[in-house]
Amino acid sequence: MGRYTKWVSTWGTATSISDRREAVYAKDLTIRYPIRLCFDGSKIRVRFSNLTGTEDVKIEKAFADNVQLKQRGQTPITIPAGKEITTDEIDFDAKAGQTVNISFYLKECTQMNAGTLVTGPLSGGTYAYGNFAEAEEFPEDFCRPTSWYYFLNTVDILTEEKNRALCCYGDSITAQDWPDYLQKELDQRGIKDIAVIRRAVCGTRILRQYDCITYQAYGLKGETRFPIETNIAGLEAVIIQHGINDIIHPVGVEVNKFRPMTDMPTFDDLKGGVEMLYLEHCKRNGLKAYSGTLLPIYGWRTYEKFRDDLRNEFNEWLRTSKGFDGCIDFDKAVRDAAMPEKFAEGFDSGDHLHPSKDAYRAMAKAAADFVENNMKK
């Protein structure tokens, strides 16, 4: 046996439903995502997802840098509707800190249903009209940056036994910057054996999902998502920071017919959902579950005191429940000391729900402190 004996995910994102715009198909399109590798290793493999698609997707050709990816020794690679596939493993001299470009070309008319919006200093890709999957660079006149991840779901490395993955699971707050800052913070602290795998979808809820095209991009409910999104090689623990959309979305059909007040959960609903859908799954699969408290919402457009009371009650349970293996108090890290229902000065992005860049860094620092105290070997 060689030095590299264990498959561990080095990068990942969720698969959701792309925003339902006028154009839902693409043709003759190349997409490239730079993926930062966390570990040394000898092989890599790539998972593509068409989980939310209703038509098969054919990837004419795909590459990890200049090494072609195949499925059962063949190209093109086909991702059946509603399925995920993993490419054949390829020999690859992977180095920690290296950036690998995953490029793929969609030759035929392709349904672009399976996509997730993600931001952060380690995130983002580029698309180009035409076949440039093998090109060293895209032509400037025919390419644009994108924060949408289509089809690419996970990248695994065959690496050392000591390495493991940590999943950050949540909604738009986790789909934004703090998981990337957490990875950078761990690197700076010399914690090199943990890869941060983001599984987050903007607008998603624990208990419910939207089936109307207006809000389909808000993704699948927790019951559906969690078992799929914790399918991560080498996964050791999950940070669960989820539930704020269950609290802030319902407004009543007289305001928005898709958001009835009957969707408004009680504390017992939220607690029971997390216990049944998340904690029981973690226990069955030998995963540590860490809670992440919900952030301030004072000033958000649907803010009401009863919503904040529910958030505070839920947060107190997240801090104290013995069902978790620990709590990262994100709320405490970003709230105002004198008025804890709102963000601290400089920590509000401006919408009174999503944090600023500085607040995301504070969240990452709180998470890194926790990881260093609880996961460092």
In summary, what is this structure?
This protein has about 375 residues and is an alpha+beta fold.
Structural summary, described in words:
This protein has 377 residues and is α+β, with helices and mostly antiparallel strands. The chain has helices at 172-175, 178-188, 222-229, 244-248, 267-284, 305-320, 330-334, 357-374; strands at residues 6-12, 25-26, 29-36, 41-49, 57-59, 61-64, 67-69, 77-79, 84-86, 90-94, 99-106, 110-111, 115-117, 125-129, 143-146, 148-150, 152-159, 164-170, 194-200, 235-241, 288-292, 327-328. The chain has a 6-stranded antiparallel β-sheet, with no helix packed on it. Helix 2 packs across helix 8 (357-374) and helix 3 (222-229) packs parallel to helix 5. It is globular. The two termini are 24 Å apart. The mean pLDDT is 96.
